[in-house]
């Protein structure tokens, strides 16, 4: 084997050892997005959190999860203050700075939520003409026509909770969110009687664990994907999915 190739392999091995020497803890950031990931009694919880914790545990790694606004999450990863970011969409432009685990954690279905006493039926983009739609800053919606449309205006809110609050107070006409997340949050806020959603989805996507693009984390990305696929075939994974299957049942 040429000397140069041996040197490259040695560098990668040393990087891997350096990661292990940090105490086998993965520093991950995310924004709360129940039921996928959120805080409960001061502790992390949620479907994708539990999945990630279990997979990392099998790899002998502890998960250190910190919550912050989404734009700060992206900045923390970019500046090297975090090893990974939980529940992120895989976009080509993010690959330069992020190492995406190949196997997705969850699939999402983006829908338009409306106040029950002021419904706005949605079947096509023309139905949204002149409306104000609440969105979350920094979030990606996997529907190019919707993202670029000038038929309606967009209004950002600092949190998903704020978006729903504006919706029931008629400060926005519609709010875009994942169906399961919107229902779960509405239940937690006691708003299920005031909020509904259009059954036609505006888009579907998958959420991933992305790691900082660092040779020290390359092997971890491969191992995580392998163990995640294995976990998905087990009864424990099916039980976990069933526990979060109907977020509307979480009404207080």
UniProtKB/TrEMBL annotation:
<comment type="similarity">
    <text>Belongs to the bacterial solute-binding protein 3 family.</text>
</comment>
<feature type="domain" description="Solute-binding protein family 3/N-terminal">
    <location>
        <begin position="25"/>
        <end position="248"/>
    </location>
</feature>
<keyword id="KW-0732">Signal</keyword>
<dbReference type="Pfam" id="PF00497">
    <property type="entry name" value="SBP_bac_3"/>
</dbReference>
<dbReference type="InterPro" id="IPR001638">
    <property type="entry name" value="Solute-binding_3/MltF_N"/>
</dbReference>
<protein>
    <submittedName>
        <fullName>Transporter substrate-binding domain-containing protein</fullName>
    </submittedName>
</protein>
């Amino acid at each position: 084997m040429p000397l140069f190739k041996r040197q490259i392999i040695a560098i990668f091995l040393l990087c891997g050892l350096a990661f292990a020497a940090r105490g086998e803890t993965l520093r991950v950031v995310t924004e709360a997005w129940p039921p996928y990931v959120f805080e409960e009694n001061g502790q992390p919880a949620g479907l994708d959190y539990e999945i990630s914790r279990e997979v990392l545990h099998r790899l002998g790694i502890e998960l250190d999860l910190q919550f912050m606004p989404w734009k700060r999450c992206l900045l923390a990863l970019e500046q090297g203050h975090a090893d990974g970011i939980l529940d992120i969409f895989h976009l080509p432009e993010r690959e330069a700075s992020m190492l995406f685990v190949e196997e997705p954690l969850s699939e999402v279905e983006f829908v338009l939520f409306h106040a029950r006493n002021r419904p706005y039926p949605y079947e096509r983009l023309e139905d949204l003409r002149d409306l104000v739609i609440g969105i979350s800053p920094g979030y990606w919606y996997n529907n190019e026509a919707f993202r670029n449309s000038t038929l309606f205006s967009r209004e950002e809110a600092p949190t998903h909770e704020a978006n729903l609050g504006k919706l029931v107070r008629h400060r926005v006409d519609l709010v875009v969110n994942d169906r399961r997340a919107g229902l779960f949050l509405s239940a937690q806020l006691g708003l299920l009687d005031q909020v509904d959603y259009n059954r036609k989805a505006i888009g579907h996507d998958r959420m991933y664990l992305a790691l900082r693009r660092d040779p020290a984390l390359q092997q971890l990305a491969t191992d995580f994907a392998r163990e995640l696929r294995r976990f998905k075939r087990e009864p424990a994974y099916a039980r976990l999915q069933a526990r979060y299957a109907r977020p509307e049942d979480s009404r207080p």
